[in-house]
Amino acid sequence: MKIVHSWLQEYIHFSLTPEVLAERLGKLGLEVASITRPGEKYKSFVVGEVLSCERHPQADRLTVCKVSVGGEVLQIVCGAPNVAPAQKVAVALIGATVPRDQHDPDGKPFVLSHVALRGVASFGMICSEYELDLGPDAEGILVLDPKAKTGEGLATHLGLDDIVYDTEITPNRPDWLSHLGVAREIGVLVKRPPKRPSVRLKEGKHLLRKVLSITVQDKKNCPRFAARMIRGVTISSSPEWLQKRLRNAGLRPINNVVDVTNYVMYECGHPLHAFDYALLRGGMIVVRQSAPGATFTTLDGKEHVLPPGSVMVCDAEREVSIAGIMGGANSEIRETTVDVVLEAAYWNPASIRRTAKGLGISTDASQRFERGADPNCVEYALNRAAALIIDLAGGELLAGKIDVCTKKLRERVVPLRISRVNSLLGTSLKKNDIMSFLGLLGIATRQKKPDTLACKVPTYRIDLEREIDLIEEVARVYGYDRIEAKSRAYVILDQPFPTKSLPERAREILIGAGFSEALSGSMQDQFRARIGGGEPVRLLNPLGVEMAFLRTSLVPGLLDAIRRNQNFGNPDLRFFEIGHIFRVDPSFPERIVEDFVEEERVALALTGEAAPRQWSAPARKADMYDLTGAVAEFAEKLSLDKARFISYSTSDGLTESTLSIEIHGGYAGFLGRVREDILSKCGVEGDVFVAELLLSSLTPRRKMKYEQLPRYPKVRRDISVFIDRNLALGTVEQMIRQAGGELLVGVNVFDVYEGEKAPHGKKSLAFSLELISKQKTLTDTEIETAVRQIVHALESEFGATLRSVQ
Amino acid sequence: MLERITQVRQEAEAEIAAVNSQESLELYRRKYLVRKGAISQLFDQLKAVPPQDKPSVGNALNTLRARVQELYDEKAQLLQQKPSEGVRLDLTLPGRKGFRGSRHPLMQTLDEIKSIFIQMGFGIADGPELEDDYHNFGALNFPPDHPARDMQDTFFISKTALLRTHTSPVQIRVMEQNKPPIRVIMPGRVYRNEAVSARSLAGFYQVEGLYVDAGVTFSELKGTLVGFARQFYGRDIKYRFVPSFFPFTEPSAEMYITCFLCKGAGCRMCKQTGWLEVLGCGMVDPAVFTNVGIDPEEYTGYAFGMGIDRTAALRYGVDDLRLFYDNDIRFLNQF
């Protein structure tokens, strides 16, 4: 909210500089986001008096004016049709930055320089409202009040040489949404409360009750509704002082009656509404809920469909205002208004918020009511506004007010234990300190028991309901900075030392293996969310179609990362990501929230060259086996179990040539080459190999444990065989292990050959076998026997022929 | 005889310096050390020496032979080290490299934060990103239909399911499942329904801290966070705590530190204020304790939270938060 310095001074005197004030309010929790001096814009602008006007000798549409700017008389060439002698005008002097350029499509500012217009020199510029950024009128120059003082700074004349604090207010402090509220906080700083203007009202003879009746049907949402009426007002624009204040506070002056309601709201924080009595049918006001599906046109001319349960102020026949949010076009104050009905009410905050949210509008009034206004301020706001209207617009106040108050709000009394203040804050404040801190906030205290104060909270402090709320107030006024920063960092000794989490260890292994960690967004378009498999979770209020679903797999995010890097000339990539995926699956047992499943996964992707280009080895594209190897290493290190890779016969939605990965004998994830069509839809070039695993499936099932080292050396024998080309390596290897028995501790395929030299339908496989005995050094005979057993098994089971043993 | 021995020694010592190749070394060996060499010839003359002089002359000869052999061995070793055929190996060729793995800068920042709190005795907890309204708002003392909910624009999944807007629901889950003392930090991804820009993201990381025990004070909250800030941002930082509002803490505060870029003089990063807001914190609101079945009269506690993305951006001088999620290796490899 914009708070105006001179306006604050109406209620409290203080001599703090704006910067110091802002800092000290900040320490009380009232944040001043910026301090502006609106007049600074008009530093080189003055009030000028047009002394004479002559037609430009060369141009019909230009006028050559002599303009007095106080000390001197300037010759100014002016293009406006309405310039005339004796006018008081706004003059930009040479060097001034004119806020808006009339000839620029965006209205950008420009610096005024010496010019000659069609051969006649011009030493300044007479400005329009638009050029000054004071309004939309660009047709002619702005003509000022004839009483304006020639030579006076324009900012001073316009009342803009003020200081404006832009405050940012937390939702718990609606009382700060007014000048009096801020003045009260300044009162804490200067140790003196602000003064609220007193109101004296002179009522006429005619009774309000005779011409207006009020019925509140929705008592729950309208605990208080009060009204007064002024007859015979003259609607006009407000006096300069009022307009200036409103402008500085960021409000647009409208007319004297509406301006008064806004002024009083910005003064004391309570929103008001004024109706034209002539437009209220039946001389009555009824507060009730809207009919289902009803529409209503607000005073800004917009038509709204009212959300169900909207509370409306109505006359005998129709709605005239959306309660606490915005008035209607059908009953607003207009130039012809003579009799004004002034409304001051208190509305249920939750109801206002629901309706405002439903309508998608937020107004000064709704912001205050939904945070909570002060029900006891109704009467003051009503009287203050009535008095000001009579002052500014004339008229006679009808006798009496109508005040339908279903629930009187008393000042709350909250007990506060002194011991609790100190034990929570870690302070040693005395009773008297606490009482004086609270006193500065207008909270009266009385000692009830030795340790307890009874604190009477003003009704404008709707946020203070409990002891803890008062403790915060004590801390605030005492000063957070004055509370000592004590540290007693200590370790709870009976807890196990925290070990590294699974994702943390996964991260370490993968980084060590040369993978770069990626993090991608969780929200995706439907295409990406669907390729992961499973029913994707849809957002009810997404930012756009590209972010309407939650990811079902980490792979699409990595594909996007690959595309981006390819586009920037980096095609050789190894990425991993650890993150959550989501899907809808009401049948999944381990759901936490409703029908939604959330899993932590780890995904790997590689593409491009298998290794960075180097001089000592030929370049090679990465392939499936680069990934299989990386995944096997990773899975084994992390899970302390060997991963099994099982070939899928069919391809799923994301990959082809897919392997499923088993760890601890159960499904842990998949690995494969990303399908062509998906790559092209994601704009990725070349092959991409991906794996995705459920992180929890990699949890080790055993503790790391020492196993005795073999006491005898290991021996190696290499064998190569021709074997049926269609046999999978896994099958052959399994047979070798089975035949090798317990002496065989390692099988490693080191050559696969399917070329012309192999017999028809055969391939050559070469294995390196590692043999060891726990009991003794193996003799050549024992080694040969073991190898022969293996070869024999391959021959008899698979029809293999031995090529060589080494 | 002894004169002759000394002469040979001096010659041998002088000549060894000129030996600079295998060939000249071999010549040297042939001159002195072979059976017909200079030293052997001297040994042959030993027979002619009078018997009383024999021991001393024999001794001198032995010393001479040992000395020359030593000179020869040293030189031989020296020549061995020199590549015999000039420089054929280009040692400036780059070594063989694999891919360089890298830890994401957000995770590096989080790791540092985690290790500081772990060292202070905090454990680590996590919870779901897809939360229910109760854990994200209700249990944290956000009343229904209250403007405090507008502080955190929410992505909804259903009427009551949503993407968590902060890591604070993990506080609730931890307190529901554990008895005090509780001391944990809770990192994770959170979501806000805000337009994505250089300065704001719809999904980002936070880390939350919670300490519940008998006798936990606001003063201790300050002490812990000041300790953290000094370790994380530097020993010389100045700090201040300013009152704020979060529904789940009271008193609530925001912690500021002196801007480490301008040292408090005012710059673009700190919006000319000299101060940077680094975290939000406060004492756990008694209503939150009541919601999780902890007696607020028996226990007090504090909680704090900070955004990892913003913290990392400040730390590394990253001016566009979106870079953290573009996964551009030119960016990632800088960390």
Describe the SSE topology.
The complex is a heterodimer of chains A (806) and B (335).
Chain A (H helix, E strand, L loop, with lengths): L1 E3 H4 L9 H10 L3 E6 L8 E11 L7 E6 L4 E6 L9 E6 L3 E2 L11 E2 L3 E3 L2 E3 L1 E3 L16 E2 L9 H5 L5 E5 L10 H12 L12 E5 H4 L1 E4 L7 E8 L8 H9 L7 H13 L4 E4 L7 E6 L5 E3 L5 E3 L5 E4 L4 E4 L3 E2 L12 E7 L2 H11 L4 H8 L6 H16 L2 E4 L2 E4 L6 E6 H8 L5 H10 L3 E6 L2 E6 L9 H12 L23 H11 L3 E2 L5 E2 L1 H6 L17 E2 L4 H13 L5 E12 L11 E12 L16 H16 L4 E4 L7 E9 L2 E9 L1 H6 L6 E7 L20 E10 L4 H12 L3 E10 L8 E10 L8 H19 L2 E5 L1
Parallel strand pairs in A: 14-25, 15-18, 30-33
Antiparallel strand pairs in A: 1-13, 2-13, 3-4, 3-6, 4-5, 6-11, 6-12, 7-8, 9-10, 16-24, 16-25, 16-26, 17-24, 18-21, 19-20, 21-22, 22-23, 27-29, 28-29, 31-32, 33-34, 34-38, 35-36, 36-37, 37-38, 39-41, 39-42, 40-41
Helix pairs in contact in A: 6-7, 7-10, 8-9, 11-13, 12-13, 19-20
Chain B lengths: L1 H15 L5 H11 L5 H8 L8 H28 L23 H15 L3 E2 L5 E3 H4 L24 E3 L4 H10 L4 E10 L11 E11 L4 H16 L5 E8 L2 E10 L16 E10 L1 H6 L8 E8 H9 L6 H4 L2 H4 L3
Parallel strand pairs in B: 1-4
Antiparallel strand pairs in B: 2-3, 4-5, 5-9, 6-7, 7-8, 8-9
Helix pairs in contact in B: 1-4, 2-4, 5-10
Q: What does this entry look like structurally?
A:
The complex is a heterodimer of chains A (806) and B (335). Chain A is α+β, with helices and mostly antiparallel strands. Chain A folds into six domains: 2-37 and 162-190, Phenylalanyl-tRNA Synthetase, Chain B, domain 1, CATH 3.30.56.10; 40-158, Beta Barrel (OB fold (Dihydrolipoamide Acetyltransferase, E2P)); 203-405, Phenylalanyl-trna Synthetase, Chain B, domain 3 (Phenylalanyl-tRNA Synthetase, Chain B, domain 3, 3-Layer(bba) Sandwich); 412-481, Phenylalanyl-tRNA Synthetase, Chain B, domain 1; 502-698, Bira Bifunctional Protein, Domain 2 (BirA Bifunctional Protein, domain 2), CATH 3.30.930; 715-805, Alpha-Beta Plaits. Chain A contains 20 helices and 42 strands. Chain A has a seven-stranded mixed sheet, sandwiched between helices. In chain A, strands 3, 4, 5, 6, 11 and 12 form a six-stranded antiparallel sheet that branches. In chain A, strands 14, 16, 17, 24, 25 and 26 form a six-stranded mixed sheet that branches. The longest helix of chain A is centred in the C-terminal third of the chain and has 19 residues, at 780-798. Chain A is elongated and about 130 Å long. The termini of chain A are far apart. The model of chain A has no long low-confidence stretch (mean pLDDT 92). Chain B is α+β, with helices and mostly antiparallel strands. Chain B folds into two domains: 2-81; 105-332, BirA Bifunctional Protein, domain 2. In chain B, 39% of the residues lie in helices and 19% in strands. Chain B is built from twelve helices and nine strands. In chain B, strand 6 (239-246) and strand 7 (249-258) form a beta hairpin. The longest helix of chain B has 28 residues, at 54-81. The two termini of chain B are 78 Å apart. The chains are: A alpha+beta (806), B alpha+beta (335).
